[in-house]
Amino acid sequence: MNPRIIMHPANLQGRDFIVGDLHGHPDVLYRLMDQVRFDVDTDRLFSVGDLVDRGPNSAAA
Per-domain residue ranges for the chain? Predict the structure, then answer.
């Protein structure tokens, strides 16, 4: 299997965050986003996988 590489332009207005292994726990992600004062207008969030399974709220993840 060949991995697909997606290039994104530089985020000159905000910050980029990369997350993985949420495993159905979006509440943890939301708390961390609050701690870093994530700005939905300028920051970007990239998920690298394992969003769902195991946890109590896979649908929200």
Answer: 13-61
- Alpha-carbon distance of 3 to 30, in angstroms, equals 28
pTM of the model: 0.77
Type of residue numbered 37: R
53 neighbors 20 (Cβ within 8 angstroms): no
Residue 50: per-residue pLDDT: 73
What type of residue is 17?
Answer: F
**3-state secondary structure (DSSP) of residue 44:** strand
What tens digit of pLDDT does each residue of 19-60 get?
988 888 888 899 999 999 999 999 999 988 777 777 777 766
Find out whether 57 and 25 touch, Cβ atoms under 8 Å: yes
